[in-house]
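Lecture notes, part 5. Sequence design as translation. It can be helpful to think of inverse folding as translation between two languages: the language of shapes and the language of residues. The source text, in C-alpha cells, appears below.
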C-alpha cells in the first residue's frame, strides 16, 4: 500500500502512522522526529510491526485439523496481509477492523471481527486488539505483536551496548525453533543474567528466543545512557525476541499463542497457547510502547 493511505496520529511526544494493510504500525517517531521503528527495508526484512492472527508462528505440516478436515495457513496467519477497514480516526487514535470474508473462510472457517486500536498519550503508544466471535461456535485463535525497534536506537549508545532488561528475573530455560519454524522440544539455558539480556547477533543464529514461561509483564530496551523504551504486555503468556543477525532492528514480540511443536497433529482447539472465544464473546490482547526519559 502507498504511504498516502497510512493514517497518522500524534501526541506532544510521539507521532505514528498505521497502514490499513495489516493494521500495521509503520512509523513511530519521537518528539525530535527520530525514527524508533524499523523502516521495512525489503533487502533485509519487509516487516515493521505486523499483527499475527489467527495463529502465531507455524503450523506443523503447514496445516491444522478441525474435526475431520484439514486447512492450510501460512506463518503467522492472514491478518498481516489483509486489508482492514478504518473504523475511526482522531488526532491521537486510529481504529481498524477485519472481518471474515471469502478468502479468510477458506483457511479459517469462523465468523470473527478483529478490531485493532492505536492510541497515543504523551510518550506512550497503546495497542489493543480485540477478537469478537460473531459466529455460533467456539472460536480458537492466537494473536501476537511483532514490533521491530531500531537497533541501535537513535540518540543512544552503539549497537553493542544495547540490552533488554526484564521486570523480573527470568531463570527458566528458553525454547528455540527448528529449520521448519516449529518448536524444538529441547530447551536452552536462559541468556538473561541479573534481569538483563545483553543483545548480540549470536543469540539469533537459530531464529527467535522464545520465553514460554515469562514472568515479567514489561521490559525496557536500550543502552545504559540515551534513549530507552519500555514495552509492556499485561496478561500475555509468551514473549519472543528476534532479529536477523546484523540487521538494524530488534523485535520484542508479546504473543498470546505460540508456534506448533514438531509433530503436533491435534485439533486446532488444542494448540498450545490458543485462547477460545465463546459465541458472542470477546478477547483482548494489549501491549504498549513508551519512550522513557534519556538517562
Amino acid at each position: 500500500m502507498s504511504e498516502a493511505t497510512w493514517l497518522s496520529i500524534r501526541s506532544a511526544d510521539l507521532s505514528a502512522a498505521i497502514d490499513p494493510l495489516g493494521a500495521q504500525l509503520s512509523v513511530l517517531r519521537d518528539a525530535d522526529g527520530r525514527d524508533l521503528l524499523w523502516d521495512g527495508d525489503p533487502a533485509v526484512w519487509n516487516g515493521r510491526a505486523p499483527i499475527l492472527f489467527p495463529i502465531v508462528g507455524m503450523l506443523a505440516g503447514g496445516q491444522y485439523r478441525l474435526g475431520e478436515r484439514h486447512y492450510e495457513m501460512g506463518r503467522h496467519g492472514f491478518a498481516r496481509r489483509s486489508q482492514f477497514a478504518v473504523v475511526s480516526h482522531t488526532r491521537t487514535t486510529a481504529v481498524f477492523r477485519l472481518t471474515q470474508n471469502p478468502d479468510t473462510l477458506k483457511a479459517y472457517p469462523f465468523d470473527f471481527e478483529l478490531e485493532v486500536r492505536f492510541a497515543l498519550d504523551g510518550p506512550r503508544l497503546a495497542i489493543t486488539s480485540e477478537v469478537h466471535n460473531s459466529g455460533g461456535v467456539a472460536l480458537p485463535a492466537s494473536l501476537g505483536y511483532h514490533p521491530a525497534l531500531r537497533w541501535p536506537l537513535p540518540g543512544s549508545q552503539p549497537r553493542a551496548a544495547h540490552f533488554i532488561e526484564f521486570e523480573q528475573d527470568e531463570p527458566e530455560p528458553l525454547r528455540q525453533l527448528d529449520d521448519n519454524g516449529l518448536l524444538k522440544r529441547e530447551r536452552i539455558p536462559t541468556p538473561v543474567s541479573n534481569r538483563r539480556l545483553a543483545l548480540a547477533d549470536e543469540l539469533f543464529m537459530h531464529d527467535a528466543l522464545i520465553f514460554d514461561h515469562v514472568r515479567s509483564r514489561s521490559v525496557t530496551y536500550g543502552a545504559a545512557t540515551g534513549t530507552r523504551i519500555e514495552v509492556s504486555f499485561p496478561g500475555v503468556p509468551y514473549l519472543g525476541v528476534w532479529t536477523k543477525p546484523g540487521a538494524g532492528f530488534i523485535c520484542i514480540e508479546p504473543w498470546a499463542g505460540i508456534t506448533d511443536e514438531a509433530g503436533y497433529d491435534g485439533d486446532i482447539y488444542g494448540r498450545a497457547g490458543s485462547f477460545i472465544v465463546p459465541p458472542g464473546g470477546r478477547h483482548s490482547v494489549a501491549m504498549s510502547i513508551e519512550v522513557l526519559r534519556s538517562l
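The translated text above is only one of many valid answers, since several sequences can fold into similar shapes. The chain has one domain: 3-292.
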